[in-house]
Amino acid sequence: MTATAQRHLLLNMTANGSLAKPGKDLFVVRHGEGPYVDDTAGNRYIDGLSGLYCCQIGYSYADEIAEAAQKQLRELCYSPLWSDSAHPTGLALAERLAALAPDGIEHVFFSGGGAEAVETAWKIARRYHTLRGETGRTKAISRRGAYHGLTLGALSFTDDPGLTEPYGPPAVETHFVANTNRTALEQPLDEGAFTAYLLADVEATVLAAGPESVGMLIAEPVQNRGGCITPPAGYWEGLRRLADRYGFLLVADEVITAFGRLGEWFGGECYGARPDIVTVAKGITAGYAPMGATLVSGRVAEVINRPGEVLNHGYTFSGHPLSAAIALRSLEIMERDRILDNVRGHQDHLAQRMTSLGDLPIVGDVRGAGYFYALELVGDLDGGGFSDTARAALVADLIPRRLREAGLLARVYNRAAPLVQIAPPLISDRPLLDRIADIIADTLDEASARL
């Protein structure tokens, strides 16, 4: 299989040429059951990252999902949501999402995934402002270290030179503001002062860019890149006030945090977010099919839906009947089996277990919420950085290898801020969460000793 990949497959976000190195074998997952996956050698692992933050209900609902898929395929395999055409399953899913969405979010534009959903959010924002006569609102605001997707439009809002520089100037002029990582502060601030500092930075950036030129601000309720960075109290309420004051749209990127990851249907609800637009993907189908969506407030839709106005934007597979049927069944399962209640019932225990890992010498900070946590690692240099030797030996090798050997799939970042991150399936019970925490503790204890 490694040889086949070398000959034919270009993996995402991968140094594909490195697969040719001696002893470098491709990790191939062949089977899933409950919160576990098996590789081609028969080894079983806890899927501590829900695939890629997707598999909310794990891998044991295939029969139910397949039943819904088969029914849909026999009835209608494809029909576009285009011009004056639609299909019943797409309509039903739009209605269902509008019912689950935060107050005021009433309209849905479907896409194939998260980057497309973000791209759609920008185009809707541009259309909204243009139709209101504010054609100069061509700039966006994002947060430092943020990731919002890899299509050229979404890439504009992503702050990672390694991802952006190979493709030249951004498609959208974007100004970056401080994210909500408290460990990045030179001096500690209390909660209220930290919120004020962050909002002052946003306001100063808006004023410097020209308030009449800013079209939208995009942010995740909990920022994934940089390690599950949670906001301080009052932050999202403050973003709402600034958006209203200066006329830009507020976009909550919930591609990861929606559909139960933080214990609510939409993670922004945990933090008082009142966005104009919400982007979702991943958990909308629990990983059983590809789909994304951009959820739009009534006040924005009222403008872009003016009689005679055309939303010149679309995707061939927008709201594909098969994906829509799978999404509907997945949401039905989550509600029926009280998946969100499972997260709410165990999230405090997971928080306690993850927080306790902060006592290990190699752990500098613990961040997260719900079933979404990261440990920021500190190394052997003054200030907490890693020497090249320690980074190569521990972050790039020992930690990911030991986690996998112990039967846990987690994310180990080996970039500016080394991290260990988990996002287990939302069906995970307390014994499984304890097992995840124990494996991480043993692994980082060994890494601490070597450090």
From TrEMBL:
What family is it from?
Belongs to the class-III pyridoxal-phosphate-dependent aminotransferase family.
Recorded source organism is Streptomyces caelestis
Indicate whether Transferase appears among the record's keywords: yes
Q: Which UniProt keywords apply?
A: Aminotransferase, Pyridoxal phosphate, Transferase
UniProt-recorded Gene Ontology molecular function terms: pyridoxal phosphate binding; transaminase activity
The name on file for this protein is Adenosylmethionine-8-amino-7-oxononanoate aminotransferase
Q: Which InterPro entries match?
A: Aminotrans_3 (IPR005814), Aminotrans_3_PPA_site (IPR049704), PyrdxlP-dep_Trfase (IPR015424), PyrdxlP-dep_Trfase_major (IPR015421), PyrdxlP-dep_Trfase_small (IPR015422)
- Superkingdom of origin organism: Bacteria
Note the CDD domains from the entry: OAT_like (cd00610)
- Show the SUPFAM superfamilies listed in the entry: PLP-dependent transferases (SSF53383)
